[in-house]
């Protein structure tokens, strides 16, 4: 249809972006309170992941090989992929859907989506906060235990 476009740039068609963003798709109409809630949830999530990462670093230092050390971060890397972040959990096979519905990333993603789209969050926000606090407590207890073992 437009052969001159395909001949430019080594056969790849270049697409021009619209000069003006599409109305309604580039901005959230969420309230200031919703934005503050999202920022708070994401900060808690970052702190929880940082605590877990510290445990993975300590465990990784005790590994015998590089491959063994890097294996400690795999669960953290794959959690977002087995959640509702990219696809609805209803479209997943049974055991995968069950796992996706009962892990922290799904409740966090669902809460953030609901807050940004001005939908009721229901109990999902409490599930997300419970997961985040549980992760922080478990990471703290494990880190203190590992630290005490190392210094004694």
Radius of gyration of CA atoms, rounded to a whole number: 21 Å
> What would the principal axes of the Cα set say about the shape?
globular
Mean pLDDT across every amino acid position:
78
What does the largest sheet look like? none
| Number of strand segments | 0
Helix content: 55-70%
Main attributes?
152 residues, 7 helices, disordered N terminus
Short description:
By secondary structure, the chain is mostly helical. 62% of the residues lie in helices and 0% in strands.
Q: Would you write up a description of this structure?
A:
This protein is mostly helical and 152 residues long. It is globular. Mean pLDDT is 78; it is low at 1-24. The chain has a domain at 53-152. Helix 2 runs antiparallel to helix 6 (104-116) and helix 6 packs across helix 7 (124-151). The chain is built from seven helices and no strands.
């Amino acid at each position: 249809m437009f052969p001159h476009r395909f001949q430019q740039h080594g056969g790849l068609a270049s697409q021009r972006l619209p000069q003006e963003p599409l109305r309604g798709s580039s901005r959230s109409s969420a309230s200031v309170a919703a934005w503050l809630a999202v920022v708070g949830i994401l900060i808690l999530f970052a702190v929880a992941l940082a605590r877990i990462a510290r445990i993975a670093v300590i465990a990784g230092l005790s590994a015998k090989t590089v491959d063994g050390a890097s294996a400690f971060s795999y669960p953290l890397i794959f959690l977002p992929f087995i959640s509702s972040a990219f696809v609805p959990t209803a479209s997943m096979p049974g055991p995968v859907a069950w796992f996706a519905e009962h892990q922290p990333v799904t409740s966090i993603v669902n809460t953030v989506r609901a807050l940004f789209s001005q939908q009721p969050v229901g109990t999902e926000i409490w599930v997300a906060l419970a997961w985040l606090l549980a992760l922080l407590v478990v990471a703290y207890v494990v880190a203190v235990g590992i630290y005490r073992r190392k210094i004694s």
